[in-house]
Amino acid sequence: MSTPPPKDSRAASRSTVAILLIALALATALVVTLGWQLHNARENQRWLAKRATQPYIGMYVPRIAATTLDGAARTLGQPAADYQVLYFFTTGCPYCRASAPLVKSIAGQLDSASGGRAELIGVALDPADAAGAYAREHGFAFPIVATQDRRSAMLFRARSVPLLLVVGRDGRVRYARVGAINTKDGVNGVLTAVRRTEASAAGPTTKES
């Protein structure tokens, strides 16, 4: 007949199993924690990349001296009154072409919506002759600046076009929209932004599109 293991041996075995279970639980918790930290790190990296390449509410824009196609001096990023609406586009962009009718609608309503406190400037990332022909084709009656300085455009996060920005007197973006402006939301977003006074626009008030 076999002899049962001594009680001390059984107790040691149970203790070993308990230690192994605790170690396994700790290892599992460590793996979960590391996975969560890695996920957060990736999310933060994506957030930072987006901040560096896409426009967002509250960001500051530079002030860049420019000349319109008709020879007038303008400063991009510095409103003449309370607000400056900047419309970045290229002449070969199909989304810009599709946006042209509603951009004209914004231009037509901007003065009444803002009480004369806002200006719209088109920024064509193309040569002046191409920008002029495009403006005439689409009946743009607002000032157009033509530039091929992509570095300056990137300071406004004009990585993709069309891009609409509403800039306040403090140089901060009040409204931003990237992509085709083919719904009333794009029009209303701009008009709502320029209806607000500087006092009420101290913080972000319009969602990024």
Textual characterization of the structure:
By secondary structure, this protein is α/β, with parallel strands linked by helices. It contains five helices and seven strands. Helix 3 (128-138) links the parallel strand 4 and strand 5 (144-146).
Please specify the SSE layout and strand pairing.
Blueprint: H1 7-53, E1 64-67, E2 73-76, E3 83-89, H2 94-114, E4 118-124, H3 128-138, E5 144-146, H4 150-155, E6 163-168, E7 173-178, H5 184-195
Parallel strand pairs: 3-4, 4-5
Antiparallel strand pairs: 1-2, 3-6, 6-7
The portion of residues assigned to helices is 40-55%
Number of helices: 5
Structural class: alpha/beta
Fraction in beta strands: 15-25%
- Give the terminus-to-terminus CA distance: 82 Å
Poorly predicted ranges (pLDDT <50, ≥5 residues)?
A: 198-209
H and E order: HEEEHEHEHEEH
Strands, total number: 7
What Rg do the Cα atoms give? 29 Å
Integer average pLDDT: 85
Widest sheet, order of strands: 5-4-3-6-7
Describe the main β-sheet briefly: 5 strands, mixed
Shape: elongated
